[in-house]
Design brief:
heterodimer, A: mainly alpha, two-stranded antiparallel sheet, 12 helices, B: mainly alpha, Ferritin, 68% helix
């Protein structure tokens, strides 16, 4: 569930950057152009490495923080089957976090460093998780819209030039498509249910639609930094292309559910074969990104508390391992 | 009580244990100290929810009144639940959670092993499946108890306190009532006295390994198996049943 991180400007390389011979960079680009996979031990430009570390770790953090809004309904899921499915989905997300941290570690950064950056607020995660899951229908909407948008973003990443990331994404995408279906299935049940259930579904769509569109990041005219990611074949489609694809796929699904899209300007354009949509409130996007969404503080407080509460457990595990390694060596 | 009613009550009770413990574990999702343990906890909780579903579905069949798994989970009141008091206690810290799991699972594994040989064939099938899961949980959780007990001074102190506090809830596991007696006699169900001896031996070995002291024999809490619970269960049930209760008859 990565999002807008792709479009944030990279910091200057600074003193750490090694001198990169032009011929190395050219050979690297030739391999990328030939669709060869770049592996962990291969030479790569420092900026390519940094871009990937930032993107993959942000994606991993998003999986971890993303467990919270759905976890909010685990104890209240309405049936045992729904509870089991939701739990399996959240478990998958923890697993995705784990593969992604491992993929990022191949680039020379440790999981501890990445987690420290998340906890300090330096590293970002997907802003969508700063919105609250207020009703059971939100669990449906998160699966349908948020995972649906994530899949649009992630399918092209299966072909990412960096091998470990590409392979992690292939596995993750398989599970994400199950997640999306379970979300839609929750909404099908609600939309075929009582008036109150249907109203719950409509309310969830109203609240999650626009934030889901923002998951694709700023519009192409505002997104100045994706050209390099495109050239490196980390990114394959522009934000607006993916957003349009998502809208085109999702609107008929809402019609199937019998729900109204919360966008008065939404209409199908016969000439282009695409839906036209209203203006996205980019100020809201920037506000949430800056830390002022409905749940930014809550999400980080919970993650920090879990980390802090676990400190004595991690210390115990290290102490035990050291004690027994010493005994085994003796 | 006839043997059919006893079997129904027994199966429901095993299902209640699985659901109540599973629900407590679910409360910890996204709050674990390491990502690997986050995965383990979710995985184990999923096993418990799955076991509850199987036991409840079979209880519904035995009862023959059209009740399904969700009726048992969501439409019974607190005093109709027959889970052990140990399982409804609040989570506390990681050491409390691990200690609870080890104390219960050392019993539950023995109970399931015994049930795999019982004369109620569906119960034996469910038990055979659950036994594999619980054997693995117990191994994992025992390793943690040993790490915490034999880790740092702080972890030792904390987890010794967990053992001391939770110990009083272990006696109930081996209390024999009419339901246990009938299921033992009529279906070859577990002999709780034998289970107790084995449990004591297993727990002794684990505690020694973890450098923890076994608490002195003392007062034991009781009542869950008869529907007399601690105050904690009511809140758990209220939260768990909220949607089913506020939308009566709705499908989800």
């Amino acid at each position: 569930m990565y999002t807008q991180g792709l479009d944030q400007k990279d910091k200057p390389a600074g003193a750490r950057q090694r001198a990169e011979a032009p011929e190395q960079a050219e050979a690297f680009q030739a391999r990328v152009d030939a669709e060869e996979k770049i592996e962990a031990k291969d030479w790569m430009p420092e900026a390519y490495r940094r871009t990937l570390i930032r993107q993959i770790s942000q994606h991993a953090h998003s999986e971890i923080i993303g467990m919270q809004p759905e976890g909010n309904w685990l104890t209240r899921a309405p049936t045992l089957k729904r509870k089991a499915i939701l739990l399996a989905k959240i478990q998958d997300e923890a697993g995705h976090g784990l593969y992604l941290y491992s993929a990022a570690e191949t680039l020379g950064v440790s999981r501890d460093q990445m987690v420290a950056e998340l906890l300090s607020g330096k590293a970002k995660y997907s802003s969508i998780f700063n919105y609250p899951a207020l009703t059971w229908a939100d669990i449906g909407a998160i699966g349908w819209l948020v995972d649906g948008a994530a899949i649009m973003n992630q399918i092209p990443l299966c072909r990412c030039s960096y091998g470990p990331y590409s392979r992690a994404m292939i596995r993750i995408c398989k599970e994400e498509s199950f997640h999306q279906r379970q979300g839609f299935d929750i909404l099908v049940a609600l939309c075929n249910g009582t008036d109150k259930q249907k109203a719950m579904a409509q309310d969830a769509l109203n609240r999650w639609w626009w934030p889901s569109l923002m998951m694709f990041g700023p519009s192409d005219k505002e997104s100045k930094h994706s050209a390099q990611s495109m050239a490196w074949k980390i990114k394959r489609f522009s934000n607006d292309e993916l957003r349009q694809k998502f809208i085109d796929v999702t609107v008929p699904q809402a019609e199937f559910l019998g729900l109204d899209m919360p966008d008065d300007e939404l209409e199908f354009d016969e000439s282009t074969g695409h839906y036209r949509h209203g203006e996205i409130d980019w100020q809201e996007f920037l506000d949430v990104l800056a830390g002022n969404g409905p749940c930014n503080r809550q999400r980080m407080a919970k993650r920090r508390k879990a980390h802090d509460d676990g400190a004595w457990v991690r210390e115990a595990a290290y102490a035990y391992a050291e004690k027994h390694a010493a005994k085994d060596a003796a | 009580m006839n043997k059919e009613s006893a079997l129904l009550a027994y199966v429901t009770r095993v299902g209640d244990n699985a659901l109540v413990l599973g629900q407590r574990m679910i409360e910890l999702v996204a709050a674990y100290p390491e990502l690997e343990e986050e995965l383990a906890n979710a995985n184990f909780a999923l096993d418990y929810i799955g076991q509850a579903r199987m036991f409840y579905a079979y209880a519904g069949e035995l009862e023959g009144q059209g009740r399904g798994e969700d009726d048992f989970a969501f439409l019974r009141d607190e005093n109709e639940f027959r889970n052990l008091l140990l399982l409804e206690q609040p989570n506390g810290h990681f050491g409390d959670s691990i200690t609870r799991l080890v104390l219960f699972e050392a019993f539950y594994l023995a109970q399931l092993e015994s049930l795999t040989h019982c004369g109620a064939s569906r119960v034996a099938e469910i038990a055979a499946r659950a036994e594999k899961e619980i054997r693995y949980h117990l191994r994992h959780n025992t390793q943690w108890l040993v790490r915490l007990g034999d880790g740092t001074d702080e972890s030792h102190r904390r987890v010794q306190e967990s053992v001391n506090v939770l110990w009083r809830f272990t006696g109930e596991m081996f209390e024999v009532d009419e339901i246990d007696t009938i299921v033992e006699k009529a279906y070859g169900g577990p002999k709780l006295e034998e289970l107790r001896e084995r449990w004591l031996a297993d727990i002794d070995a684990i505690l020694i390994n973890a450098t923890l002291d076994k608490p002195e024999e003392g007062w034991m809490a009781s009542g869950g198996k008869a529907g007399r619970h601690t105050e904690h269960l009511g809140y758990m049930i209220a939260e768990m049943q909220y949607l089913q209760r506020s939308h009566p008859g709705a499908s989800w």
